[in-house]
Each structure stands twice: as C-alpha cells, then as structure tokens.
Amino acid sequence: MLLWLLNSFSTFTLAVITVGGTVVLAVAGSVIARRRYPSLAEGEHNDMVGVTLGMFGAIYGIILAFVIVTLWTQLESTQTVVATEATDVALIARDAAAFQPEVRARLDVALSGYVHSVVEIQWPRMRAGEPSYEATGTKLQAVFDVLQSYDPKTAREEVFYAEAVTHLNDVAAQRRARLTMAEQQLPPLLQVLAFGGALVLIPLTFLYGMRRLRIQLLFVASVAALIGFSLLLVFVLDRPFAGELSVSPAPYREGALAAYWGP
Fold it and tell me: In whole angstroms, what is the distance from residue 145 CA to residue 168 CA?
C-alpha cells in the first residue's frame, strides 16, 4: 500500500494528503473535544498538560530526528552504491580499449546487456519493492565469461585485464549491496514509535485549553502540521527506490555508458 502511494502520487500530492489530513483531523478532534468538555476552555489543567506536552514532545522529537537522519543517511549511501557500481562498469568499458578488437566487442555487448537489464528490468522491480538477483544474474555472468575466457598477450593487456577483473568484482559487490538496500525498510518498532507517537502527542494538544477557539485551533494545527510534515519525510525516505525522491538510474546512462544507449 505504501509503495503504491509513493509510486502513484507526486511528493506534493502526498504532502497535501499527509500534512493536510493530519491538520484537518487534529482540528476536528480539538473542536469535538472542546464541545464535549466545555470546561477545557478554562485552561484549569494547562500546567499539567503543558509539562506533559513538553516531555512527550521532546522525546518524540528526538525519535523523529533519529529516524529521519537514519533514513536520509541510508538514501545517501544507496546513491553512493549506485554511482560506484555504474563507475566500475564504465571503468571496465574503458579498460577494454586495451584488449584485442574481438574481445573488446564481446565485452561491450556483455556490458551493454548488463546495463540495460539493470535499468529496464531490475530497477522497476526495486521500485516495486521486489528486487531480484536473477534479473541481472545471467547478464553479469556473461561479463565474467568474457574476461575468464580471455588470455592477455602483452604486458599492457595484462595490466588492464587485472584492472578490469578488479572492477568487475567490485560491480558484483555493489550490485549485492544495492539489492540489499532495496529490500530494507524502517524496522517495525521504529514505525510504531514514529506513527504511534503522533497518535499520542496530537490528542494531548486538545487538552491545552484557551479561551478563544481560533487561537487554540491555530495552536493545534501548527503542532499537527509539524508532525505531519515529519511523518511525510519518514514516509518518502523509507524506500530509497520508490517515489519522486528515489535514487535514479541515471548514472548507468552517463559518461562512458552513454554509448550503450544509442544516439
């Protein structure tokens, strides 16, 4: 459900739904509570409610900050892994310039097949939350087959061959890391703390009474908007390959790899 929302709606639309929905529900709840218990407007319990709000708000803020920083770091790490994998593939293509023409041609075909399978087959699966090793397994093996069957003839070829093999092993390692990251999501306990904390904190604002309804609703709406925006960040950053803020496959189309995508 969450992946479908991320892949079906823009970030702006999700912001309107998440932040706007949180504010509307909070304001409606505050109005209902005030009508149900008119004495809340007197603010006789404000001292106790204020202390409780401050304590809960501090704890919840620390939790949300930890979650958001963790997810942002994960997104940056995923971008680095993707860029590194694409760079290693490009370096193999450049190293191949030192090989015999027929070997270079076979290696270009194999690398092109791998790059296309990553972008056209594996990426949509990662975006849908269903990463698959098999989606690019045969294409990557084809690259290994070319290098494993090649016997360098000169010292120059041996140097570039060793570099190409090293980069290919790095590609395999980065591919595994990328697929592992595509499967990761916020642990259930942190999900409960992030979203459950909002269900505790927002209703507490209903109990902080003010004589003027407009001022109280402004207070409740402000707190709800801040919480809603924080939850939006958790929502869109949780899956690094889904949504508008997702990691892009652009590195596999740039630089030396652009030749594999035609004019």
Answer: 11
pTM of the full predicted structure? Answer: 0.85
pLDDT digits (tens, 9 = 90+) for 137-181: 899 999 999 999 988 888 998 999 999 999 999 999 999 999 999
Query: Distances in Å between the alpha carbon of 186 and those of 68, 166, 195, 217, 226?
Result: 10, 33, 12, 32, 21
Q: What token pair was written down for 181?
A: 């990251």
Closest by CA to 99, choosing from 156, 20, 145, 31, is 156
Length of the chain as a residue count: 263
